[in-house]
Amino acid sequence: MSLPAPRRRRGARPGTGIGRTGAGRPSVSHLQVPAWGEVKREWRAESLGWCTPDGRLAGAGLALLRPLPGLRRYLAYLPEGPVIDWFDADLDRWLAPLLAHLKGLGAFSVRMGPPVVLRRWSADVVKAAVADPDARRLGDVEPTSYDPRAAGVAERLRRAGWRPSRQGGEDGCAAGRPRHVFQVPLAGRTLEDVHRGLNQQWRRNIKKAEQAGVKVVRGGREDLPVFHELYRETAERDRFLPRPLPYFERMWTALTAEHPDRMRLYLAHHDGEVLAAATLLTVGEHVWYSYGASTARRREVQPGNALQWRMLCDAHEEGAAVYDLRGITDTLEESDPLLGLLRFKAGTGGEAVEYLGEWDLPLNRLLHTALGLYLSRR
Where is the composition biased (Basic residues) (predicted)? Predict the structure, then answer.
């Protein structure tokens, strides 16, 4: 199969390749669907497709282009993509036309995040590693499973001049997508299996929330301001910069226009007050817990656990293969402020997953180096 240069795909929507699940695959990252380009308006978005000579879609990707100030030159970024056959021994036949196309658009550097899993650690292994005073990083712990094909992909990328990213990413080129995530496998499991997989604390907290009268409901676009108030409180408490409300309104409009269930909002109520809320994203058989928010009030009724359990149940009922809790730290030291989040996610009984991470290829070394110096000084 020969693959011509990627071409821009206009108006891709559910039922046509990546607009629905991604070039005939059961799922792709929500960061690679065409609608995500409408969310990231500060970038120029290019929805691309690889086609066979007979016109069949063989691969797809969303490239986000961020211009250098004052120049018509771009950093091209494909978060968690593109969607191609990464295990093809001739990987260059996929990447060479992509690079030629992006260079023709004015890209001076390309960053991508191959959706290729390298290692997995079960919840029991993670729990033991966290309790081990000699364990410093997740990568130092024997994995539950390892895919040697992923190492082959990394080697082919290195031979082609790609290097693991050290900085930069989707938002202002400042922070890349997480290399380590936590996922709960759902395929082939009953809901009872999933519940039994929760640790004792999770099961106790879910029951406590139910007995306290916590009710989790689905919200709509009109409930985004309620979510955002909790989100701003969470940002202040956890010391991160929150996104503005219009960002979430834009997400809702763009993603639900592509598919009505692409983005959902869940709200945990107790005694007439919303105590926690979260957004959920779905593409094909993959479901992501996207943004979470909560108040510090009445934490004893465990609204966070109730919220997660309702979203897990809905994902399972609708046939999802995986429930993705997104990023985790790979540092196991008690001094890491994110270790508590790892413990919380490990309580779901899922698994820690390591992807290949993001990779850079400079097309113009002078501009690529200049961008690196600029980012290092920010």
Answer: 1-12
What top-level class would CATH report for the domain 187-320? alpha beta
Q: Which residues contact 40 (CB under 8 A, 6 or more apart)?
A: 64, 170
DSSP string, 118-164: EEEEEHHHHHHHHH-TT--BGGGSPPSEE-HHHHHHHHHHHHTT-EE
7-180+356-377 against 187-320: fold identical: yes
Higher pLDDT, 168 or 162: 162
CA 170 – CA 167 distance, rounded (Å): 11
Q: Which residues contact 77 (CB under 8 A, 6 or more apart)?
A: 43, 63, 64, 65, 66, 110, 111, 112, 169, 170, 173
Q: What is the pLDDT of residues 58-99, one digit of tens each?
A: 999 999 999 887 778 999 999 999 999 999 999 999 999 999
pLDDT tens track for 186-198: 999 999 999 999 9
Q: Architecture of domain 7-180+356-377 in CATH? A: 3-Layer(aba) Sandwich (3.40)
CA angle 343/345/347 to nearest 5° reads 70
> What is the torsion angle, in degrees rounded to the nearest 10, for the CA atoms of residue 330, residue 179, residue 191 and residue 198?
10
Report the predicted TM-score, pTM, of the whole model to 2 decimal places: 0.90
**Any bridge partners for residue 50, and if so which?**
59
Amino acid letter at 363? L
